[in-house]
Amino acid sequence: MFGAFRPTATVSVGLLWKVPWRLSATRKANVRDRLKKVDAVIEAVRASGVQCAALTKALALPKEHEMDPRDKYTVFSPHHRGYRKGVHKVPKWTRITQRTNPKGF
């Protein structure tokens, strides 16, 4: 308990990095920029003439300017009040697409 491996105040309190409950304006701008960059890559692959199943799925997704703000910054969650949670609460949210949600949500 009082040796070399005693728990420090930071360890015993909890997580050091907290996730804010609301996206800041800067983070929202970064989300929009990320969506636009993905749209640009999808368009470049389409223009190159390549045909594949992944491209067909990507072309079916809505573009950034076609999405509602609610769909840009939140995702469907059956466990949260209102059935929505912030996109930044999803693990690996910068690497996976969350552009589509169930009908009615």
Automatic annotation (TrEMBL):
Signal peptide: none annotated. It is found in: Mitochondrion. One of its GO terms (molecular function) is structural constituent of ribosome. InterPro entries: Ribosomal_mL60 (IPR016340). GO terms for biological process: mitochondrial translation. GO terms for cellular component: mitochondrial large ribosomal subunit. Keywords: Mitochondrion, Ribonucleoprotein, Ribosomal protein. Pfam families: L31. Transmembrane segments: none annotated. Its main location: mitochondrion. Component of the mitochondrial large ribosomal subunit. This is Large ribosomal subunit protein mL60. It comes from Multifurca ochricompacta. The lineage of its organism: Eukaryota, Fungi, Dikarya, Basidiomycota, Agaricomycotina.
